[in-house]
């Protein structure tokens, strides 16, 4: 299931099955002809940012900004992290209530994106919380063995000025 956000004001959920049933013809590299409900639609990908899953698409001479979220993106969003905003993250909050099993970092430590920060046990599952960005750990607000509520502040990053 894909979540499609169009121009920040409309959201659609599209299944893989519905994508497969589209009547679409590629007319050139970025141009497409779509037949939907017996209506002919001309679409062109004007600009694409594959890594951030953001596209500018012209449909019948109207341009739309489109963001595409796959299942993993939607899970990240559900855990309380912002998609595409990892470089702006200044703190890590608990995505769910649980028990802090292990803390891998110390205050003042430099971390890289995707480095493990800590393990949060929730519903008998161990969830490794990874760093969403490069940076320096400013403070750690929890201790090993401590229970936390959802949205409890766990770790703060130093902000660069």
TrEMBL record:
Residues 80-158 form the Lipoyl-binding domain. This is Acetyl-CoA carboxylase biotin carboxyl carrier protein subunit. Keywords: Biotin. The keyword Nucleotide-binding does not apply. CDD domains: biotinyl_domain. Gene3D superfamilies: 2.40.50.100. The keyword Flavoprotein does not apply.
């Amino acid at each position: 299931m894909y979540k499609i956000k169009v121009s920040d004001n409309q959201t659609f959920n599209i299944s893989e099955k519905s994508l497969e049933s589209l009547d679409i013809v590629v007319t050139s590299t970025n141009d497409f002809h779509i037949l939907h409900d017996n209506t002919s639609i001309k679409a062109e990908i004007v600009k694409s940012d594959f890594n951030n899953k953001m596209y500018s698409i012209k449909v019948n001479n109207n341009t739309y900004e489109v963001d595409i979220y796959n299942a993993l993106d939607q899970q990240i969003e559900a855990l309380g992290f912002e998609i595409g905003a990892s470089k702006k993250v200044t703190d890590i909050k608990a995505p769910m209530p649980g028990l802090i099993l292990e803390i891998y970092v110390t205050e003042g430590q430099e971390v890289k994106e995707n480095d493990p920060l800590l393990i949060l046990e929730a519903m008998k599952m161990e969830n490794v919380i990874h760093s969403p960005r490069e940076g320096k750990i400013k403070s750690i607000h929890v201790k090993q063995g401590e229970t936390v509520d959802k949205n409890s502040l766990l770790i703060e990053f130093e902000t660069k000025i």
